[in-house]
Amino acid sequence: MASFLCPLASGSLGNALLVASGRTRVLVDIGLTQRRLKEALAAVGVEPGEIDAVFVTHTHRDHFSTSSAGFCLRHTIPVYASGENLAHLSDTLPAFRKLVRGGLARPMDGEAVEIGSVAVEGFDVPHDSPGWCQGFRVSLGPSRRRRSVAVATDLGHVPDDVLAWFVDATAVVIESNHDSEMLWASNRSADLIERIAGPEGHLSNEAAAEALAEIVGRSRRGRVKHVVLAHLSRDCNTPALALEAQAHLARGKAEPVRVFAARQFEPGPKIGL
Fold it and tell me: Is 217 within a domain?
């Protein structure tokens, strides 16, 4: 499998997404313990030393932590993020300052970052994290056979300028955090519920369905082949509900989009691109 993506973990207890093209391997977020990350990589046949770079969406600890910094230091892996996020991580994680001193903390300044056969562009998404929250569009392979993966794992809503980054992506990785009825019926505090459901919180199954209908509708026919639903709540969602909300992607289509729900404690699926 020359090019593939694989969620290694997805949810409030840690997030990591592997994207590979030829011999190039990059991770989007690594909010796991070093042991969990090594086990997840091993499950898909990848060694830590094969990772070429880490791209950080935002500064919440389920996306990058002290353990993440230790992993990157141990294996000399460069970390790319917005300047605001690099500054926040440096201010709050002493281990991250070692990455800075070692030249491994690298800002994304608006230009695509090219590593081997992979190019990564960042775009801003609405989420209430310190610093700045981004999604990424990862382009793979030679220009004549270019494929792409568009990723946004935490966002409260999907404005039009964000939608544009997903159009014609071969694979879409997008948050489908909660079922609205389950969230409002939960025993969480009113303030927390309002934050999660707010415009800078987390995307519901229903909102993800609306966004995906727009993405597929604006894309060239058959261009979007795979969707991975990410960051499912353990308390206010189920994989079955998240997948059911996206049934429209298969209905009446000669080439239905394949839809998967990423999991918190198991890597997979491994999706060829």
Answer: yes
> Rounded distance, CA 201 to CA 188, Å?
15
The CATH number that applies at residue 172 is 3.60.15.10
CA dist 228 and 242 (Å) reads: 10
pLDDT average per 10 residues of sequence, the chain (273 residues): 91 97 96 97 96 98 97 98 96 96 93 94 96 95 84 96 97 98 96 96 97 95 96 97 91 80 95 94
Smallest Cα–Cα separation from 26: which of 60, 61, 52? 52
CA distance 152 to 104: 24
Cα separation of 17 and 29, whole Å?
7
Please give the residue range of the domain that contains residue 138.
3-267
In total, how many domains does the chain have? 1
* Residue 272 covered by a domain: no
| pTM assigned to the model | 0.96
Amino acid in position 23: R
- Identify the H or E element spanning 260: strand 258-261
What is d(CA 163, CA 208) in angstroms, rounded to the nearest whole number?
11
